Amino acid sequence: MDLFKTGESASGKSGGKPAYTQSAPLATRMRPQALNEYAGQQHLIAEGKLLHRMITSGTIGSVIFYGPPSSGKTTLAHVIARETDARFVVLNAVLDGIKELRAVVDEAKTRERMNSVRTLLFVDEIHRWNKAQQDALLPHIESGLLTLIGATTENPYYSLVGPLLSRCQLFELHPFDVEDIKLLLHRALDDEEKGLGRYKVRVEEDAMLHFAEYAAGDIRNALNALEMAVVTTSPDENGQRVIDLEVAKASIQKRNVRFSRQGDEHYHYASAFIKSLRGSDTDAALHWMAALLEGGEDPNFIFRRMLIFASEDVGMAEPKALELVQAAYRSFEQCGLPEALYFMSHACIYLSLCPKSNSTAAIFSALDRIRTKGPGQVPDYLKDKTANKLKARYEGDANASEAYLYPHDYPGNWVKQRYLPDDVGNSPYYNPGDNPVENKFNQRLRQLRKENDSSKD
């Protein structure tokens, strides 16, 4: 718990010394101190936007900031603390719990009673608190004793309790784009007090672009990589440190693919992958599959999704799709990475280029009818032969199974016969797709349905 931030008074305004040391990482030192220094998130803080109006008017209500790591949630909370007339208190939901919250509440009551100073409570990683801990905030937000700023990397609609959501404004932050990151990198290079301005640095344009692009929206990653490049590069004969593309690549070696297998991004990437396959966009399907893999996704998950897709979205338009994906999956298991990526790519490209049909969803029409109206009675001649025989012997009646027509005894291995219960009617569950392969099956299906319909006359 941090009741009084270094460099801030109890009112939350900036004090004399900065709230960091020179040994702090560049990303920490370069945190904006005022709203006009904040880059990115213009959909939230551009002039005229709700959050901008709230901050500049000083009438901040309880808010939840949610978005990926390093998208500026904590920084924005600190900016709000400096822009508003409130005491700023920080709790981290990983380290702090009910005990620490009670201490904040007691101090807030004292402050309010003595000098009418309100308390702005920032809870980082608020999704880490369980229901009881989140509920403990409610009466103090409701009474106005605390104004909450919560920050989370998780979807708040899943991770936070409903009563807390109803008392807060929700603002979604996005990853920084390349231009935002380049702006902040240049700002760090020019700043002599907090940044790298005390060094004589020249960053070549392709190196700057590499930092900005390879960070994948993570400003902390980009700034700290820039600092590493600068401090580990020796000055040339002119005292200048030149950061070229080779140095940039060595300083930020792995692109930060931002999703966890339990988080929203996991589902967003998986959804984009499937929708790209469905839309027959091969390059997009490969792109999102690669993003899933680079983010640490289990290849088994990807193959399971492709197996489902082979029946759900390709289905009868290319019946061999399921067989091919299964073969690719078995080959993947036998060979292992990295060579097995060929099998994933094979299945992905094949599925994206296959004709599409979702007619296998017919099962859900059948299930819906069963669930709402029941299965109906099995026609007597379709019932179990042994059971019919015993029933006939017991009742001294004709064996209903004798009325069953065995299709293989007839030309073409087909005979007119009703298989559905009488009360189901003739509305088909299966609606064939319009594609070359399925049309071949459709011709036979239409003929069989026509023959069966005529058998009732």
Describe the 3D structure:
The chain is α/β, with parallel strands linked by helices and 457 residues long. The chain has 4 domains: 147 residues, Rossmann fold (3-Layer(aba) Sandwich), CATH 3.40.50; 74 residues, Helicase, Ruva Protein, domain 3 (Orthogonal Bundle); 90 residues, Zinc Finger, Delta Prime, domain 3; 75 residues, post-AAA+ oligomerization domain-like (Orthogonal Bundle). 49% of the residues lie in helices and 7% in strands. It contains 21 helices and 7 strands. The protein has a 5-stranded parallel beta sheet, sandwiched between helices. A two-stranded parallel sheet has the order 6-7. Helix 10 packs across helix 11, helix 16 runs antiparallel to helix 17 and helix 16 packs parallel to helix 18. The longest helix is centred in the C-terminal third of the chain and has 19 residues. The radius of gyration is 33 Å and the shape is elongated.
In short:
This protein is α/β, with parallel strands linked by helices and 457 residues long. It has helices at residues 26-29, 42-45, 50-57, 73-83, 98-115, 131-135, 138-143, 156-159, 162-166, 178-190, 205-214, 219-231, 245-251, 264-278, 282-294, 299-314, 321-335, 341-353, 362-373, 385-395, 436-454; strands at 63-66, 87-92, 119-124, 146-152, 169-172, 201-203, 241-243. The chain has 4 domains: 26-172, P-loop containing nucleotide triphosphate hydrolases (Rossmann fold, 3-Layer(aba) Sandwich), CATH 3.40.50.300; 178-251, Helicase, Ruva Protein, domain 3 (Orthogonal Bundle), CATH 1.10.8.60; 264-353, Up-down Bundle (Zinc Finger, Delta Prime, domain 3), CATH 1.20.272; 380-454, post-AAA+ oligomerization domain-like, CATH 1.10.3710.
